[in-house]
């Protein structure tokens, strides 16, 4: 069985690097999308938002969130999705997708289930 996962994140993100290392150590093919180079598409963000909710996608502890002064922002889900697409550094990473299965942040238990180990 050939397994390939898609990981969205940045090279500077420690959790994204851990996810990439997790899959590399298990010889799982990874398609890495560096959000600093290419932002996630609106469709991809919607897929994760449907599963986890828009609020869960926003990295409220991140530096970019503070830099933009969004602490008291009261935006609709649709507006948050637009903001996440325009400002990829606001996305909580890593976002990991295997077929229709999704994870947000570090979730080694789910990843082990995917690869059967």
Rg, Cα atoms, Å: 14 Å
Tell me, briefly, the overall form.
globular
Kindly report the oligomeric state of this protein: single chain
Low-confidence stretches: none
CATH class identity: Alpha Beta
Mean pLDDT: 91
CATH topology type: Glutaredoxin
- Binned, the helix content reads 40-55%
Count the domains: 1
Q: CATH superfamily, called what?
A: Glutaredoxin
Order of helices and strands: EHEHHHHEEH
What would you note in describing this structure?
Helix 1 (14-25) links the parallel strand 1 and strand 2 (29-34). This protein has one domain: Glutaredoxin (3-Layer(aba) Sandwich), CATH 3.40.30.10. The longest helix has 12 residues, at 14-25. Helix 2 crosses helix 5 (77-86). The two termini are 13 Å apart. The protein has 6 helices and 4 strands. It has helices spanning 14-25, 42-52, 54-57, 63-67, 77-86, 108-115; strands at 4-9, 29-34, 95-98, 101-104. By secondary structure, it is of the alpha+beta class. The chain is globular and about 45 Å long. Helices cover 43% and strands 17% of the residues. The protein has a 4-stranded mixed sheet with strand order 2-1-3-4, sandwiched between helices.
What attributes does this structure have?
single chain, 117 residues, alpha+beta, Glutaredoxin, four-stranded mixed sheet, 6 helices, 17% strand
